[in-house]
Specification:
The chain is 41% helix and 26% strand. It is an alpha+beta fold. It folds into two domains: 4-111, Jelly Rolls (Sandwich); 124-175 and 192-280, no CATH class. The strands form two sheets. Strands 1, 2, 3, 4, 5 and 6 form a six-stranded antiparallel β-sheet that branches. Helix 1 (32-39) runs antiparallel to helix 2 (101-112) and helix 5 crosses helix 8 (265-277). Residues 92-101 and 181-192 have low confidence and may be disordered.
Length: 280
């Protein structure tokens, strides 16, 4: 478990947390279940992420108890932090300790039986109003950073639209091709196929094709990906988890395959193809 600062908070729906850091670090707003996953070094879902510019704002999507976690990515002592809460309060400041196996098992059982409510959608007008209020307080350097981020978001949205259209077309083609025999050379990707996979060297490696980009995965990498694909989780949870894994381990697949964010339909298409085509 990475050394980290931890505060337990009670926040109302859409209550905000403002965090100021003197050095770059990771800032996570976690539910009870995901805090347990974080402490166990398991995959976890979070609000926030890597912070390089302060202050940094986050909102709680629903009312309840939350865990604010801040770590410096294993670079020694945690960063110095200032926290301000709106529409909520701190429950207690808890020093972090390595939990025993018994503690972990009890926390897992509690988290497994707790169902989290779905995040409420924030009205667009409210978001625009709040954004405008924040923009008036940001300096030129910060505005330039936001502008670049906005350009990336717009690009990713456009890429996702194109990918969605391509996926729909691929599904239509697949349905119309049922009952027909299509011949192609061994080892080559089928025409108009967005996602394909080929076994190499007797299963020692695999070539996965995404949006025309051919990438080699080791057997160990394929085992990890296939385990995620076969896990009985929702499409949204799978897409988020798979995207995080790719971003950490194989960012080249995201970049060359033009997968802009976790909502890309290509992630689910990859899940479908790998589950049906890879046998191990």
């Amino acid at each position: 478990m990475i050394p980290h600062l931890h505060k337990k908070l009670y926040l109302k729906a859409m209550g905000s947390v403002e965090v100021g850091l003197d050095n770059p670090g990771n800032v996570y707003l976690l539910s009870e279940k995901n805090y347990v996953h974080y402490c166990n070094d398991d995959d976890f879902e979070y609000y926030g992420g890597q912070v390089k510019n302060s202050p940094f704002w986050m909102r709680a999507p629903w009312e309840g108890e939350w865990h604010l976690v801040i770590d410096s990515e294993g670079a020694g002592e945690p960063v110095n932090v200032a926290v301000r809460i709106t529409d909520g309060h701190e429950l207690f400041d808890e020093p972090v300790r390595k939990k025993s196996n018994r503690d972990m098992e009890e926390n897992k059982k509690k988290a497994a039986g707790k169902k989290e409510p779905e995040a409420k959608k924030i009205p667009r007008k409210k978001l625009l109003k709040e954004l405008q209020e924040k923009l008036d307080k940001i300096d030129e350097e910060g505005l330039l950073f936001l502008l670049k981020q906005a350009q990336v978001l717009l690009h990713n949205q456009e890429v996702d639209k194109i990918n969605q259209m391509a996926v729909e077309q691929s599904v239509k083609s697949e349905k119309s091709a049922k009952g027909k025999t299509v011949k192609r050379k061994a080892g080559s990707a089928p025409q108009n196929s967005l996602v394909d996979v080929e076994e190499q060297n007797g299963g020692k490696s695999y070539i996965i094709t995404v949006n025309g980009a051919r990438k080699i995965l080791s057997r160990q990498e394929m085992q990890i990906v296939l385990a995620m694909c076969r896990e009985r989780i929702s499409e949204r949870e799978f897409s988020d988890r798979f995207y995080r894994w790719l971003k950490t381990r194989r960012n080249d697949i995201l970049f060359d395959g033009r997968i802009g964010n976790p909502s890309s339909p290509l992630l689910l298409l990859m899940r479908k193809v790998l589950k049906s085509r890879v046998k191990m």
